[in-house]
Write a structure and sequence with these properties.
Helix content is 38%, strand content 17%. It is of the alpha/beta class.
Length: 328
Amino acid sequence: MSKTAIENREVSWNVQGIPVCGTITAPVDKEAHSAIIFIAGSGPTDRDWCTPLLPGTNGSAKLLAEALASEGFATLRFDKLGSGPHVVENLSKFTGKICMQYYIEEITGAVETVLAETNVKKDNLFVLANSEGTIHAVNYQLQAKNNRFKGLVLTGAPARSMGDLARVQLSKQFEPLPGGELVMKHYDEAVAQFTTGKPVTPDPSLPEVLKNILLTLETPSNLPFSRELWAYSLADHIAKVTEPLLVVIGKKDIQVDWKANGEALEEAARQNSEATFLYPETANHVLKHEEAPVEKLDPQSVSLNYNAPGIELDEEAVNAIINWLKKF
């Protein structure tokens, strides 16, 4: 069966005086289509889900947008705050002003932009978010009074707060070492200062890497967002979502463990009869196909391949997303 012909078109909108730039990828016809807003993950991740922190331009969002458009969906992906080609010129405009509310306004602009398209079904709007982006998607849904998403696709979704995830990872690294329990005790004390809004004063005995992590949290350009994000638990908020949900966490995702996070989110969403959970066997954190066994995957090599040339989307994950969206 031949796929629908698609086209790309640049769009933009403003949030608090800062331009947000994006790409609409949609079928080339005059019919009305369901629309999907893409929301990227953490850090300087752009509209294609590429980042200067990792090599390659083979971003999953671009591939997903093309796959969905060829199946008859209109999609919009955008360079979120702190990413894309205009980040340097906009840096002074958002330094020290980043907060959760900004991201809601950013999504609101994206929604208004795509709904202004003549070939979009106004009552069939969805979101497809990845990693930290799932937090912003849920936040928007819970606060929006108009133009709510008909359904949410949450991929690589962390159930626990960023603070909890960081502590688990750090404790695995430091607690087995001599004096490790004391190190984590001092770390916890500094985090408590951070979360209550007090100046962070790391204990002098802490390893330099932990001192740097703690001091980075308090960097003025990251506040107040880092403090809000550090304590945010997606499981607490997803429980309040009543619309259809599709949560996709790959079994080759080494950033968000599918079993621990999946179980927590399933429990949180147990009252939502339209919540679906999928754990593709060979999908990684950005829904790319990964053949290697989990025990042989190390963070550095995996992340370096996220956007490498020739790395393809995971077929099971993509087909599941397309089939779920086509039910509406």
